[in-house]
TrEMBL record:
Gene this chain is encoded by: ccsA
Subcellular location(s) per record: Membrane; Plastid, Chloroplast thylakoid membrane
Identification of the protein by name: Cytochrome c biogenesis protein CcsA
Quaternary context: May interact with Ccs1.
Transmembrane segments: 12-32, 44-62, 74-91, 98-120, 140-167, 223-246, 261-276, 283-303
Length: 321
């Protein structure tokens, strides 16, 4: 009873803080950046992280196993993973990484907000584990898979941001070149002579702007590569441990049910990303990672809508690994 009450309190506190943090982030989007608001939102993120940690520990003690037995619990663990990724730059005091928080913060906030919003109220009460889940492999397999999903999702979103910035730059260059071609030659010559001084004055500004944009693209590419690389390791460990667990539970290492098939597709997509990132331009690898973002959600969330296969207990009434 005590653990249940404590869990209930932590859930409401974390949801309330997340709601406040969302409001602060919306305010910062509408007005100029205010240092005080930014610090408040970061403190709110830290408070929410500790509330989620307390919630997971309380539920773990209360249930006797790592709370990953249904969609609600896996979403809580997913949001906890997002918060870890978000807070790493903050605690390392690396200001050049604070731009990455624009990706990690909304991911953490909205995932936790959805999990605690009341839409999954029926799943808050964890049922007795089915025999297949009563194994020490539960902690290893599911935790690695969810950590892998979190890292891959964040890395993929960084790649999406890279593509948006890159293509916006290309569109501007293309539109400027079209305007230059469409101008008559005589007017172009007169305009060149009359506006030469203005061009020289703005050259330094434009070059510095392009420099910072280039630096941002490189930063997004670097950290997308690092985070996806980490997530790929987690995903690989999760798949391998799941195969061993499947052999113990079902007598076969691989059965090609929908969950396993999409996990393999996800692994393949990001293996292609790592190969592409090593050998080709960052834009090509970013396109692959953007495709991977959709594949992850199909694997994690979409397959559960079917409710078929050996992972049928992984639907909206049980585990989601």
């Amino acid at each position: 009873m005590i653990f249940s009450t404590l869990e209930h309190i932590l859930t409401h506190i974390s949801f309330s803080i997340v709601s406040i943090v969302i409001t602060i982030h919306l305010i910062t989007l509408l007005v100029d950046e205010i240092v005080g608001l930014y610090d408040s939102s970061e403190k709110g993120m830290i408070a929410t992280f500790f509330c989620i940690t307390g919630l997971l520990v309380t539920r773990w003690i209360y249930l006797g196993h790592l709370p990953l037995s249904n969609l609600y619990e896996s979403l809580i663990f997913l949001s906890w993973s997002f918060f870890i990724i978000h807070l790493v730059p903050y605690f390392k005091k690396q200001k050049n990484l604070f731009n990455l928080n624009a990706i990690t913060a909304p991911s953490a906030i909205f995932t936790h907000g959805f999990a605690t919003s009341g839409l999954l109220t029926e799943m808050h009460q964890s049922a007795i584990l089915v025999p297949a889940l009563q194994s020490h492999w539960l902690m290893m397999h599911v935790s690695m898979m969810v950590l892998g999903y979190a890292a891959l999702l964040c890395g993929s979103l960084l790649s999406v941001a890279l593509l948006v910035i890159t293509f916006r730059k290309l569109i501007r260059i293309f539109s400027k070149s079209n305007n230059f071609v469409n101008d008559p030659l005589s007017f172009g010559e007169i305009q060149y002579v009359s506006e030469r001084n203005n061009v020289l004055q703005t050259t330094s500004f434009l070059s510095s702007r392009n420099y910072y944009r280039s630096q941002l693209i490189q930063q997004l590419d670097l950290w997308s590569y690092r985070i996806i690389g980490l997530g790929f390791i987690f995903l690989t460990i999760g798949i391998l441990s799941g195969a061993v667990w499947a052999n113990e539970a079902w007598g076969s290492y691989w059965n090609w049910d929908p969950k396993e098939t999409w996990a393999f597709i996800t692994w393949t997509i990001f293996a292609i990303y790592l190969h592409t990132r090593t050998n080709f331009k960052s834009v090509n690898s970013a396109i692959v990672a953007s495709m991977g973002f959709l594949i992850i959600w199909i694997c994690y969330f979409g397959v559960n809508l079917l409710g078929i296969g050996l992972h049928s207990y992984g639907s909206f009434t049980s585990i989601s690994n």
